[in-house]
Design brief:
The chain is mostly beta strands. Helices cover 3% and strands 47% of the residues.
Length: 129
């Protein structure tokens, strides 16, 4: 089973940028599709973006489309979430998750937390002036 560790969160002003990293160990990341989720206080966990196992195809929630980009670097066993034009409503704990042999990246599939079997512990992103 793959283990995941997120990093890169922090405090940023509205309109700013952050890059989150999801580093994998214990198994070859090549065999896993990866999703990013976020959870704000008092709210349910929300699917943000996901990327397939081999095709590199990606999907984004409407709320982040055009602002966030997900990229995988299998050589570094890391998936990145580039976040631009950040808004206060992006404030949340961000989690990465992995599913073995995941090829599909439809929003209906990737936005369901129970689809993913491996999770990191999360990294806090706070967007505030």
């Amino acid at each position: 089973q793959v283990q995941l560790v997120e990093s890169g969160g922090g405090l940023v002003q509205p309109g700013g940028s952050l890059r989150l990293s999801c580093a994998a160990s214990g198994a070859a990341l090549d065999n896993y599709g990866v999703g990013w989720f976020r959870q704000a206080p008092g709210k349910e966990r929300e699917g943000v973006s996901c990327i397939g196992m081999t095709t590199g195809s990606a999907n984004y929630a409407d709320s982040v489309k055009g602002r966030f980009t997900i990229v995988r670097d299998n050589a570094k066993a890391t998936v990145y979430l580039h976040m631009n034009s950040l808004k206060p409503e992006d404030t949340a704990v961000y989690y990465c998750a992995a599913r073995r042999y995941m090829l599909t990246t439809s929003q209906a599939f990737c936005s369901v937390p129970s689809v993913f079997g491996s999770w990191g512990h999360g990294t806090q992103v706070t967007v505030s002036s």
